[in-house]
């Protein structure tokens, strides 16, 4: 949600700055933010109990290390020795890795809401111009993500409060299936089709 809002604002306010289009600036700023977070990780990540990160001393107290080291000894965990090419290649011998990779790929690619903005981008006005600006292509999916957030909190919250899972799983699945039917049928009404997309956020 934050990324979409930021990209929408960047594409609008930086359009034409230094001869670059707004969407290019969105990529540049996102890249700078990514590099910044990666560099901060070198400072914030604590390391291992037996090999703490020296840059994390400003928040990692000696007593914290003692607690971590005692826990590793208590459960009998061997000290970290790093990774070698041999141990890296050995990971590919386990069928669990391949099964997880396939299942993850199928699961992440089956959600239509990932392509909502592509449908929005395809819409045209009667004169052939694009119906939505680059900024709106970033803003409209945010509404779906907000709906998804609220829906997940409600589903999980009431499920825990009532101590039951099945009714909420069935409701969740029913909403998802209904949204998929709408998206497959593709009604002539653009508004009805839009409802199908937003319903998919709820059931995704």
Topology:
Blueprint: H1 2-13, H2 22-44, H3 62-74, H4 85-90, H5 95-109, H6 116-122, H7 134-162, H8 166-185, H9 190-203
Helix pairs in contact: 1-2, 1-7, 6-7, 7-9, 8-9
Protein name: Major facilitator superfamily (MFS) profile domain-containing protein
InterPro entries: MFS, MFS_trans_sf
Transmembrane segments: 23-45, 94-112, 132-154, 166-185
Describe this structure in words.
The structure is a single chain. 68% of the residues lie in helices and 0% in strands. By secondary structure, it is an all-alpha fold. Helix 1 packs across helix 2, helix 1 (2-13) packs antiparallel against helix 7 and helix 8 packs antiparallel against helix 9 (190-203). The longest helix is centred in the last third of the chain and has 29 residues, at 134-162. The two termini are 16 Å apart.
Q: Summary?
A:
With 204 residues, the protein is mainly alpha-helical. The chain is built from 9 helices and no strands. Keywords: Membrane, Transmembrane, Transmembrane helix, Transport.
